[in-house]
Design goal:
Length: 337
């Protein structure tokens, strides 16, 4: 068994995947790198095969018909032999000195693995050549094994993202995680559904993951998010049904608070992009989403009504203007797309 599996979903990634893979190779022979070629039409398949031929003990390639990012994550997990599992997008990369420290720490967990390891991640903004680090020093104890009972409050900018987590592989399988095909934004499910199964956590105050942001074809580009809002709605509804947050046990009360805030954020994102669209059809979909939430779980509905999500769901022409204005301010502060 390998110590960790890095799954790298690749779709037409020929222009930038080399940098990603070269940083992962620094993890050495204890790591497994699974390159999932998701029906690419450029040189991605050939590049992936070349790495597999050059590093046969480390790199494996899966060629599949196009199924989307989520199916790349699914197939990576299905074929993973690593004790731990981390997804790295092909246009991102890992900081090598931090990676070496993470590998050394994972080695100490070989006999008694924790469920989740968390590290910091860095936004690398291509438009203005700036970077911004998201850390969790005020939320988690540093360099010790802990449980949800020991965490502190997350700030709005401190959600756990796919970039920040390393899961124990078997935990993901045991919780039945299967991401939908042909759907963007499934990383939200990846960092939401498994959390109640996580019992032990370890946080390393290292800037491990470098998240490249600002390319026009990225899924988080605003125009793309408006165009793909139906996929955002699909993910939000899956999360709505994935976990009964109010059924979590008392020892996970702090986790419940975090998950409620995260789901409220998903309702906010879905609502604001439907508002940005502004068409009658989009506004009808926004009403339907909130009606569906109310019918599904009245308690969760009321919680979202008294959160930032409601600020993205204000009625009428003036309400839409206020919602969009608030979004623009948050966009400038947090630079999330």
């Amino acid at each position: 068994m390998k110590l960790i599996t890095f799954a790298v979903p690749c779709y037409n990634s020929a222009a930038y995947m080399d940098h990603c893979i070269k940083t992962l190779l620094e993890a050495g022979d204890e790591a497994e790198i699974i390159l999932v070629d998701d029906g690419s039409t450029d040189d991605t398949p050939a590049i992936a095969d070349r790495y597999a031929e050059q590093y046969p003990d480390v790199v494996r390639v899966i060629h599949q018909p196009n199924g989307g990012h989520g199916e790349g994550v699914n197939q990576g997990l299905a074929h993973a032999t690593g004790l731990y599992y981390k997804v790295v997008d092909s246009d991102d990369w890992l900081d090598v000195p931090s990676l070496h420290k993470v590998m050394a720490q994972l080695r100490t967990f070989a006999e008694n693995p924790v469920d989740m390891v968390v590290c910091n991640y860095v936004y690398e903004h291509v438009e203005d050549n700036t970077s911004h680090t998201v850390n969790y020093r005020n939320v988690f104890p540093v360099d010790k094994v802990f449980t949800w009972e020991e965490i502190h409050k997350f700030l709005p900018s401190q959600n756990l993202l796919m970039h920040s987590v390393i899961y124990r592989s078997q935990l993901l399988r045991d919780c039945g995680l299967v991401l939908p095909k042909h759907t963007f934004y499934v990383d939200n499910i990846f960092v939401y559904q498994p959390l109640p199964q996580v019992k032990t956590i370890y946080y390393m105050n290292l800037d491990l993951y470098r998240y490249f942001i600002g390319r026009e074809d990225q899924s988080v580009n605003e125009a793309n998010m408006i165009k793909r809002v139906d996929q955002q709605l699909r993910v939000t509804r899956i999360m709505m049904n994935a976990v009964d947050v109010y059924a979590l046990p008392p020892e996970q009360a702090k986790l419940r608070a975090y998950m409620l805030n995260y789901f409220s954020m998903m309702m906010a994102i879905s609502s604001i992009f439907l508002t940005l669209d502004g068409s009658k059809e989009a506004l009808a979909k926004r009403r339907q989403l909130w009606d569906d939430l109310k019918a599904h779980d009245g308690h969760l509905y009321r919680r979202c009504r008294f959160s930032v999500a409601e600020g993205c769901n204000l009625p009428g022409w003036l309400g839409s203007k206020i919602s969009i204005g608030g979004y623009r301010i948050a966009q400038k502060i947090f630079k999330f797309n």
